[in-house]
Amino acid sequence: MNTMNQEAAKPKVELRSQNSSEIVVKNVSKVYGGGPFAKEVIKDCSFTIESNKLTVMIGPSGCGKSTLIQLIAGFETPTSGEITMNGSPITGPGKDRLVLFQESALFPWMTTYDNIMYGPRARGEAGKEATEQADFLLAKVGLEAFRDKYPPQLSGGMQRRAELARAMINKPEIMILDEPFRGLDNMSKELMWKYYASLYEEDRNTNFFITTDIDEAIFLADRLIIMTNLPTQARHVIEIDIPRPRLIGDISANQRANDIKKEVMTLLHEEAMKSFSGGSKAAADFLDAYSKRAE
Amino acid sequence: MSTVMNTDTSSQKSAIKGAIRIEDVVKVYDPDGAAVMAVDHCSIDIPGGEICMIVGPSGCGKTTLLNAIAGFHGITSGEIYLDDELLCGPGKMQAEPGSDRIVVFQNGALFPWKSNLENVVFGPMMEGKLSKKEIYDKALSMMADAGLSGTENSFPGEVSSGLRRRVEIVRALMNDPKVLLFDEPYRALDSLTKSVMHEALLDIYYKNKVTIFFITHDLEEAIFLGHRLIIMSSRPCKPKKVVEVDIPHPRDYSVLTSPRFRELMEEAKGVVHEEAKKAFEAGEKEG
Amino acid sequence: MSKTNLKDKIFSRSFLRGIITIVIFLLIWEVGARFEGWFGYRLPWVGLIPPPTAVFVTWGGLIGDPGYWQSWYLSFGRVLGGFIAAMIIGIPFGLFMAVNRTFHNLSFPTFEILRPIPPLAWVPASIIFWPTQELSIAFVTFLGAFYTIVINVLGGAKSINKQYLQAAQSMGASQWDVFRRVVFPATLPSIVVGSAVGMGITWEVVVAAEMISGGGGSGGAGGGLGFFIWNSYVGGSYEQIIVGMISIGIAGYFSSEMLRNLGGLLTPWLKTR
Amino acid sequence: MNTESLQASEMTGMALTMYRISTWIKSPKPYLMFMGFGLMLGLWYFTVEVWKLPRFEDMPGLTEVVTEYFSADPMYGTSIYTPEYYMHIGISLRRIAYAFFLATALGVPLGLFLGWSKKFREFIFPLFELLRPIPVLAWVPLAIIMFSGSETPVIFLTFLASFFATTLNTMLGVESIDESYSRAARCLGANGWQTFRHVIVPGAMPYVFTGLQISIGVAWFSLVAGEMVSGQYGLGYLINTGYIMITYPTIVIGMITLGVTGYVTSALVRMAGDFMMQWRVRELALGDN
Question: What is this model's ipTM?
Fold first, then answer.
C-alpha cells in the first residue's frame, strides 16, 4: 500500500473510498430482440474486476464491450447470469460505479466548475466540503484557468480531465472507462496515459478500462482480460507484472511487454478467424486487418 | 503475401515527377481583423517519388500548408513549385487545383451518391482524355488490384470505413497524379485496422511510385510509412527537425519491433513531445 | 465590432451588390406602374398596382394617423396572445411527450392526425366556438404556432445524447433533477428555433384570420393589419394595401429577430464554439 | 455501438418490416394510439351531444358529422357519394399541383445557384430576404388586383408560399454540403460546371426534399386561405360556405378531407425523395456503421 504523498499546503482530501470493492460477472448473457431475429451479444461471460486493481478489457471493435459496460453500470439488465458488487447484485445505476464514455458527456451548457459540482448538487450534498473538493480537483486536473469556461472551449484532453474530476468528486468505488482516449491525437493520448496512470497509482481505486489499443492496454493494466468476438466471452486473463510507475518508452523496450503484446495479438487473431463467418461488418474489417498482418 | 518491390525499371529512368519545392512560405489568416499567422517562413524540399511525413501537434497549421499546395486557398508570401513549375508565388497567390495534386481528406470525400465504381471513374470521366471503355477497364483492374473487387456497385455508405479509404486512394490514382496529399486519413480508425491500412498504402505506393505528402500527428505511423519526417513546431508551423528514415523499402509490419525503428522513435519523440506540450498547455483545440 | 470593419461592412462589395438589385427592383416597379400614364399602354400585372413613390407618400400620410398604429397594436396583441399560449401549452406538452413513453404513445398519433389540417381551416369552427372575435383569431394564431413548437421541442428533447442522461442518473440525480438540469437545457436551443419559426407562422395566420373574419362579412370590430389591408382593398385605396403588406413584413421580421436574440441570451454556451 | 442497428442491418427489407410489425403489435403502442383516438372522439361526442356544454352545443356533433359524411343523400349536399365533394377535392389538388411544381421548377434551381455562387447570392439574396417576411396571405388583395379571374390569384398565393420555402431550404442545403466534396471534385479535374452537376446537385438533394416537405405543407396552408377569401371552388371554399350557409357538418368534413389530402401529398413527396435517393435509404438502413 503506497503512502499518499501529502502536499502540505493543500487540505488533505480523502479521495480514496473507504472499502475496496470488487465486481464479479458470473455466466452473464445478453440477447437483443426476440424469436428468429434474436441477436446474442454476450454469451455466458464470466470475469472478476478485482479490488484496488486497474483491470483492462481488450477486444476487437464492435465485439459487445460497450454492452458489458451498460450491464455493469446498471443501465441494462442481463438476460441471464448475474453481476454482483461486493456480493450484492447490481440493480441500477449508482454513484458507486461511474462511467466515462467514449465521447465526452460533459454538459455543454454548464461551465467546467458546474459540471464538477453536478453530482453533489444533484444529491443535495453541495455543502462547504463539496465546494472545497471541487476546487481541489480543479487544481488536481490542472483546469483552474478553465473553471468558468464551457466544454466546447476545452480541448479533447482537457474535456477528459474535467470529466475525470466530475466523476472523482462523487468518490466512486469503481471507475469505468469506455475507450476514453480514442478520439485524441497521439500526443495528447500518451500524455493522458501517463496522467491517468499516475492518478490511479495515487489512490489505487478499482478501475475498469476498455480499449482496442494494445499498447494502451499494456501500459495501463494490472490485469488484462482478452475478449472473444461476438458473442462476447472472457477468453483469457494476463497478469501485467511490469512494475509501476511505468514509462511509455519502456513499453516497446521492455522484453516482458513485447512478449505480452505478441501473446495478446495471437489470441485476438484466433478470435477473429473463428467468428469471421458471423459476417458482421466490424468483424470482417477486423479480420481483413489481421489476415494481411498474419502472413 | 510479402510485397514484391516493383522493379519496373522504366518508371525509374523516366524523369521522377512530383518534386515539390516550398520556399519561405508564409500564410496569415485574417478572421475578422485579428491577423493569425498559420505558416511561418516554411521551406521544404521534397524529391519526386518520396514519402514525406509532416508531423506536428494538432492545430499547428499543417493542413493550411496542404491546402496551399492543393490550391484550396492562397499563401501570403513565398513560392511553391511542382517539378520546377510555379504553383503559386508572387503574382499568383493561389494555385489552381488540378489532377496532378490530389488530396485524400481526413473524413473521406467519396461521393456518397455514387457507387464505388462511379467514384473511381469520376476523375478520368471529367477530364475526358480516355474513352469510356478504357476508363472502366482501367478502373476495374485497379480496384481488383487493391483487393476491392466485389464492392464496385455498392455505395460508400454500405462498406466499412477501412474499405472506403482504399476506394478513395484508387480514385485518386486513376488520374495518374504526380503528388498524393494525405490529411491525417487514418485518424478515426482503431489502432488495429490502422496498421493494415498502412501496409495497403505502401502496397499501392510501390506499384505507382507517386510522391506522397502525408500529414499526421502519429509518430509511429510517420516513421513506418515515411522516407523522411519533417517535424513542425506548434502554431505558427515551421519545420523544426528533419529525421531521415533509413529503413529499407519494401517494409512490412515486423519493422515496428526492429531496434532501428525504436532509435528513430526516441530521436523524433523528444522534439515532438516538446511541441505537443506547448500546444497542450496553450489549450490548443483539436486541429 | 470595431469601428473600422463596421465601416467596411457597410460599404463592402457584397452589401452594395444587394442594394443595387433592390434599387433595380424598385425602378422596374416604378416604371412599370407609371407606364400606362407615360406611354398609354398598361403592362400586365405590374401595370395594375401603384408605384413605390405613391406608396411612400401614402405611408407618410399614415404615420400621423392613430388608426394605422392601432391596427399594429391589435395585430401584435393577437400574435403575442396566441404565441404565448402556444409556448405555455406547447413546450411542456412536447417535453412531457419526450420524457414519458406512454404519454407519447397516447397523444402523439392524435397530434399527428390533427397536424396536417391547415390552421386557417379552423377559422370558421373557431368563430362558431369562441364568443368574441378576438378569441377566435387568437385561437387560430395559437394553433399556427402550437404545432411547430411541439414538433421542435419533441425533436430536440428526443435527440439528447443518451450518455448525458446516463451520466446524470449514475451520479444519483433524481428524475426531476435530470429533467431540470439536463433535459431542459439540452432542449433549449430547439425551443428557441421552434418559437422563432412559430412566431413567423403566427403572423401569417393573424393576417389571414383578420382578413377572413374581418372581411368575411361578420362585421364586428375587426381591426389589425390584416383587416387594414382587406379594408384598403375594399375601399379601393391600393397604396394602403402595399403599406399594410410592408408593415406586416417589418412586424414579422422584427418579432422573429427579437426572439432569436432572446434565445441567444438563454443559450450562452452555443456562442462559445 | 448501437446493437439495435447492428441487428437491423443484417436483415433483408421484407423480414425487417415483418419483424418491426410484430414488435409493434406486441408493444403497448397500438392500444395507446387507439385509446388516444377514442379519447379525442369521445370528448367531442360527449361535450357536444351528451353534456351539451356551453359554447360546445352549437358545434356540429360527432354522430351528426358521421351520418352526414356517409349518407347517400346528405342534408347539406356534401358526402362521399356526392360528386361536388370530389370536384372540390379535385380542384384543390389541381391548384396545389400547379403551384407546387411551378415553385419546385423555379425554387430548386434558384436555391442551387444561390448556394453555389457567392456573387449571385450577394446580388439576389437581399431582395429575396426583403420579400420573404411578408406573410403570404398579405398578398391576397394584390393577387386579386394583379390577376384576373379567381383561379390565378389562388394558385399565385400557393405558389408564393411554396417558392420561398423551397428556395431557402435548397440554398441552406447547398451551403451545408461538406466542402471537401467540391474540393475533391476540383482536384480530380472537374471544372466548375461539372462540380455543380456531379457534387452540388446530388449533394443538396436530401435538403431539397426536406424543403419540399415543408413547402407542400405551406402550400396547403395558403391554398385554404386563398380559397376561403376569393376562390369559387375547392376545400377552403367548401369550408367557408359551410360557415356562411350554417351547414356546420360540411365544415368538419372539409377539415377532415384537408387533413387526409395534406398527409397523403406530403407522404408522396417523401416517397419520391426515397426513390430518388437510393444511396441515402440504403445508408440509413445500415445504421451508423
Answer: 0.78
